[in-house]
Design goal:
Length: about 120
Amino acid sequence: MIHDPEKLSIEVTVDDSAAKANVSVSLGLIVTELVINALKHAFPRDRSGKIVVDYRSDDTKWSMSVSDDGVGVSSDPKFSKPGLGTGIVDAMAKQLDAMFTTVAGNPGTKVSITHS
């Protein structure tokens, strides 16, 4: 999956908030799925790049995102069908009563899970 670890980096930015145990376990599973997805799809043919994981929270709402500067998601529906991983992330977001969104970056892709 990672042909040359020197070509990829992962950056994590978080605030100093704490999440309830059930939320943190679910977010950990979601982050794992999204990072694996980025490693599998965002950087073909030994492309170099960066994955950024971000988490922010206040008293009543939180947001978590995984973004990359890879090749991005195709705008053609024939080539951008959601896979099993996307279905898992969507189901977990719904269990957390959170919103799941995917946005094309320039370059790359950003996936966000937000709860308000």
